[in-house]
Amino acid sequence: MTTPKTRITAGILAGLLLAGCFTGCFFRKGENDKDPDTPITITDTPEEDPAGTLTPIVTPENPDDPASPADDPAQPTDPVTPIDPVDLPTPVVPDPGTAGASDTPADTADTQADTPAEDGGTHVTGIRLDKYIVAVQVGKSDMPIVTMLPSTALDVGEIWTSDDTAVASVSTYGKITGVAPGECKVTVRSTDNPDVKAVVDVMVVEDQDVIHVKQISLDKYETTIQVGLMDMPWVTMYPTNAGDKGEIWTSDDTAVATVDKYGRILGVGPGTCTVTVRSQDNQDVTAKVTVNVKIAEVVKEPTYIDGTLIVNRTYALPKTYNPGVSAEAKAALDQLIAGASEDGLEFWVESGFRSYDQQLNLYNTYVGREGKDAADRYSARPGHSEHQSGLAFDLNSFDDNFDTTPEGKWLAAHAWEYGFTLRYPKDKEDITGFMYEPWHVRFVGKELAQKLHDSGQVLEEYFDITSVYAD
Ligand SMILES: [Zn+2]
After folding, report:
1. Which tens digit of pLDDT belongs to each residue from 2-25?
2. CA distance 299 to 319
3. N or C, which terminus of the chain has less Cβ within 10 Å?
4. pLDDT tens digits for 192-242?
5. Among 370, 386, 437, 460, which one carries the catalytic annotation?
6. Is 437 annotated in the active site?
7. Residues, CB-to-ion distance under 5 Å, ligand 1
8. Domain 106-205, what architecture?
9. What are the counts of helices (DSSP H) followed by strands (DSSP E) for the chain?
10. In the chain, helix, strand, coil percent, each to 5?
11. Fold agreement between 106-205 and 303-463
12. What is the CATH code for 303-463?
């Protein structure tokens, strides 16, 4: 995919389609009547675009996001829009200003320490732009988005100049307008500290000319994945208004990793290879990713501590561990559902047992939409999902706001009475390794459930164990 925005949006929409379920489900929201054993395959993505032309979309929930390309007006169209953006996971937005291009001023600007001003405030020590390459047609304009660093600086005034106003002019607030074909540099300085500046390379073309790709930035230039798992770097092509931002992906060793036309890199065998993305528009413009592929440690036995099965980022289940839904957990859940119904509340299972292969498919689907770093926050890698234990259930909703509903409140208050623990509480992401999931309960038996409830601890705290992936 071409731009981070496009990719993020597609990921969000995909997340919604998948009901945003996280360690999660493989159901689509509103399709709970579908066969719950239908895994989603990695080919099932809304971003598959046979024409290879992907429309940049400004994320609807954050129109003021400074990372939004200024030259990309919000596109009203998307095949799967009418979804409330409130229950979206927050996407990780790579900063185009720092995403690549090691020769850009952003790299140094970001690292500078705050300088206290004599008046007690903070002075500007760096300037970051959302783009350092701008191309416009004669008579057209573009405007980089400026961030003065540090964010605590008091005087964030800007001084804009063009070194060749016969090629491009620039307004006092940074709007760059093409005057005549050619190249020039536009500089923005801090009014607070004129030594601090950022420079934009400006190209002006005839008003009917196509704007060509000059540079490709990625959100990462190296990745480590396991055999069978995926990653997908986010691509930004500059100028962002280039006419053809199509990508051509290749791997120099497909025995180590393959890459598809969307940039989804799949680990095939142990080793290191280089994956290259080229601009379809200008094949001399490339970016490369070093891909390290490792074989996952083979897990032979599930881990029990004091009789409790542990599944998290540190402790995986064997690939062959395939028990189905635990009868004991199901019986306890039936009691929970009956108890809630006496209080006039209704619970149902959105997602229960998932096999290793189903989780593999699900995880790779998320990675193929948002990249590995984002997917790792909410989707467990295969072997690391509690759903594979047969002891975990996702109930009712995959919406963070489930905890504000009567059912969500009841679950938080009463699940322990039936032997369940809310496995991924708010503000414990660093401990459990997973985002808040008010809908995910894990059967641990009444005795332990009460201890966890009374102490407010999660399993990792109670057993003093970690939840961290090995790589
Ligand atoms: Zn779950």
Report:
1. 444 344 433 343 333 333 344 433
2. 7
3. C
4. 999 999 999 999 999 889 999 999 999 999 999 999 999 999 999 999 999
5. 437
6. yes
7. 23-24, 394, 440
8. Sandwich (2.60)
9. 9, 26
10. 20, 25, 55
11. no
12. 3.30.1380.10
